[in-house]
Write a structure and sequence with these properties.
369 residues, mainly alpha, 15 helices
Length: 369
């Protein structure tokens, strides 16, 4: 009742953006190689559907087309140049609202019939898992950090005061390690490129006792890695995926690990398993190119997009599949389009909505199994 209308809305927004942003541009090499990587991955999915008959391949193709390709092709005709403040505010309000709702459901025991909190000890619902909520919280906190570099109105300051603690509480309740690691790395990058030592030190003094407190589920997930079933399972999946790559180093084997029909939760390993050495080389070129673009924008004082890219690049090494990493591909596309101009009077509203739609997915892609 929610995810299907949401996806339809993303496609409609992408269509509007595609029509409005009509200015042509010469693509950068990184963007060309990104398209090549997508093409190779599409061919892999089509092969797995038509020839190999791998279960779940059609679902993956459908999700990849609707959640990644259509929005990203539309975003490739846009730019976020000069729009960092507005986009950060949008992410703050949408992400903060999501986190406030999730935390309220936890403390007021709402939606218990769809909750898995008692079974897992984490903020977990049937349709929204802890990792997804954790990354929503991290995105919100990154947006709040970036907004502190602007001169804010009292209303927007109040919004940060409300949204940031709720987002941090949501992050802690999910007990997801990947989003917390991403937040720490992005906060360190924020510190390096802004020099706001006092702000970071103050935040660290406030949050570290919570993270490593005796009652923190997050603390136990960092200290009991050898007993964590999720970590053990992912390491086994990655080992199997690497074995498949060794068996088929040129063309890859399948979009999922054949025995478990699951993805290895690591972008690099998955690319090697699915596309072989050629696809892996293309992906590495894309990642290096995007990292250089992000570093250039950070040096220019533009924080939001590079930090969001860093967050989702790290997320892709710890969770998710190629066909479902919509936020990573969207931030990559926008990085490659940065510096290009689009008539603001025509493209701005759709750019804002298109960008948030690509980053606001609150559930993982459908699992092949």
């Amino acid at each position: 009742w929610t995810s299907i209308p949401f996806r339809i809305g993303v496609v409609l927004l992408a269509t509007v953006l595609f029509i409005q942003a009509t200015q042509a541009r010469f693509p950068l090499p990184g963007q060309v190689f990104l398209w090549l990587f997508w093409l190779l991955y599409l061919l892999r999915l089509l092969w797995d559907i038509a020839v190999a008959g791998v279960p779940g391949a059609m679902d993956a193709l459908t999700f990849f087309a609707l959640a990644v390709l259509i929005p990203c092709i539309a975003l490739s005709r846009s730019t976020v140049e000069g729009q960092e403040y507005s986009l950060a505010l949008l992410l703050l309000f949408v992400g903060g609202g999501t986190c406030i709702l999730a935390v309220s459901m936890y403390y007021f025991q709402l939606g218990q019939e769809r909750s898995l909190i008692e079974q897992t000890g984490r903020l977990f619902f049937e349709a929204v898992n802890p990792i997804s909520l954790g990354y929503v919280a991290t995105t919100t906190l990154i947006s709040a950090l970036c907004l502190t570099t602007y001169r804010l109105s009292p209303f927007h300051r109040a919004a940060i005061v409300v949204a940031a603690p709720a987002s941090f509480a949501c992050l802690m309740l999910t007990a997801s390690r990947g989003p917390l690691i991403a937040l720490v790395i992005c906060a360190a990058a924020f510190l390096i490129f802004t020099g706001r030592w006092r702000l970071i030190v103050l935040l660290a003094l406030l949050v570290l006792p919570v993270i490593f407190g005796n009652v923190s589920e997050m603390e136990s997930r960092f200290t009991n890695l050898e007993e964590d079933e999720s970590s053990i399972e992912r390491l086994m999946l990655q080992g199997s995926a690497l074995a498949e790559f060794q068996k088929n180093p040129l063309a890859g084997s399948a979009f999922v690990e054949p025995l478990t029909l699951s993805y290895p939760h690591n972008l690099i390993i998955e690319a090697a398993m699915a596309l072989g050495i050629v696809g892996l080389a293309v992906l590495l070129f894309v990642i290096i190119s995007a990292c250089l673009r992000a570093l250039k924008r950070l040096r220019q004082g533009e924080l939001l997009l590079p930090l969001l890219f860093a967050q989702y690049l790290l997320a892709a090494q710890l969770s998710g599949a190629i066909y479902g990493n919509a936020a990573l591909w969207a931030t990559m596309v926008l990085l490659f389009c940065a510096g290009c101009t689009v008539p603001k009077s025509r493209a701005q509203p759709a750019i804002f909505l298109g960008a948030i739609a690509s980053n606001a997915a609150v559930s993982d892609p459908p699992h092949p199994s």
